[in-house]
Amino acid sequence: MKNKISEGNIKNREAYIRKMVLDGYILHLDFSDIKELNRLLRNATNNLKQVAKRANETRSIFKDDINRFAK
Questions:
Q1: Which domain holds residue 11?
Q2: How would you classify residue 24: left for phi > 0, otherwise alpha for psi between -120 and 50, otherwise beta?
Q3: Which of 48, 50, 58, 63 is deepest in the core (most CB within 10 A)?
Q4: How many domains are there within the chain?
Q5: Which of 61, 41, 42 is nearest to 51 (CA)?
Q6: In angstroms, how far is CA 4 from the centroid of its own chain?
Q7: pLDDT digits (tens, 9 = 90+) for 37-67
C-alpha cells in the first residue's frame, strides 16, 4: 500500500483510503509539459502585446522595436 500511496502522490494513508472509497482508483497525471507550453505561450503573448502597444502609440513599428520585445 505504501508504494501506491507514494505513486498517487497522496499525503497519508487515510487520504488514500478515502480516495479509493470515493473513486475506486487513483490517477496521477504529469502535466509538466503542458505547464511549460502554457508558460511559453504566455511569454509570446506578452511580447506580442508589447509590440502591438508600441505600434499603436507610434503608428509605426521598427525592427529594433520588435527585437527589443522579443527577448
A1: 1-28
A2: left
A3: 50
A4: 2
A5: 61
A6: 26
A7: 999 999 999 988 988 888 888 887 777 777 7
